[in-house]
Amino acid sequence: MLQDLGVTLPVVAAPMAGGPSTPELVVAARQAGGLGFLAAGYKTADQLAAQVAAVRQETDVFGVNVFAPNPEPVVRAEYADYARKLADIMSPLGVDVLGILPREDDDAWEAKLQLLLDDPVPVVSLTFGLPPEAAIEQLREKGTVVLQTVTSLDEARQAAAAGVDGLVVQGSAAGGHSATFTPRFASAETVLTEVVREIRAGVELPLWAAGGIAAAGDVRAALDAGAEAVAVGSVLLRSPESGTSATTRAGIAHGIEHGLETTVTRAFSGRPARGIRNEFIEWFDAEAPVGYPAVHHLTSPLRKAAADRGLFEHVNLWAGTGYAAGTEETAADVLRRLAR
Ligand SMILES: Cc1cc2nc3c(=O)[nH]c(=O)nc-3n(C[C@H](O)[C@H](O)[C@H](O)COP(=O)(O)O)c2cc1C
User: Same structural domain for residues 179 and 255?
Assistant: First the structure.
């Protein structure tokens, strides 16, 4: 799949919504011989279009990642309880948490799909859920390579049956939200090479492996298990091209300095995601209800207020288990080092 795109490095810059995946990061990955992804998540279709245009100034070979709707509506009473707890403890941030009504949306799925049909890009990867088969077919008819992120053999089979061209196999070590199709249930801890082997044996599609890749040996192991490439996120978060916020950069540096571990939590968004342990997780992990995106929208103004004040204890520091291997090298240097 990568050779057809003219990509020579088997290390892909994974999509990271919320800031890190800038056009600069995508272009840097391409210039290193790899492939980069824009992250459509949390953006409007217009914001995505602007980023696509910026990347196209430098390269025609890139991917776009989109959240495919897989709503997990929140239970109203649980939402209200959680809002009260957040309001009590986080009151110093001055956010009117109790005034935030539950908001269920699909992250502008239709508008983003339409944009990608009107102005096709080489690769689209989908996460969170499997879209209608018609959407996959429409994208493929435009010449777009369509990938689905999966976390298990069962999800891989569903995606293959829906007609995608390839799979991103995400292990539980991955930073950020789990791509699981069933966020209501606690995801199993998985070993990336084992899931890749299992899916390799059960599904014929090309596979990319993601989650916890921190060194060249991890790349080797994933390729030996049957992946044609790996996708890395966390090791790029400190690179100069990444749009990682100053507060998150400080939080990651603090985590590395103090040897802090990562954990999977629903506290920030109502959907399981891996990040560096901090006070917010300590206080709220056990309290948070299931419910995406309502809980994401509920905590979002708190996280923004904390980020503006540099309070990394109170923002989501999404990171995979290997995040401490992240350096301030350029993205190209990181990708080439991993591919060596
Ligand atoms: C900050 C951050 C944001 C992420 N955002 C997205 C996203 O928008 N879409 C997606 O499919 N995966 C997202 N991921 C997951 C990555 O694409 C990838 O699966 C993961 O980073 C791989 O694991 P690693 O972080 O251990 O390298 C995100 C990961 C991080 C760390």
Answer: no
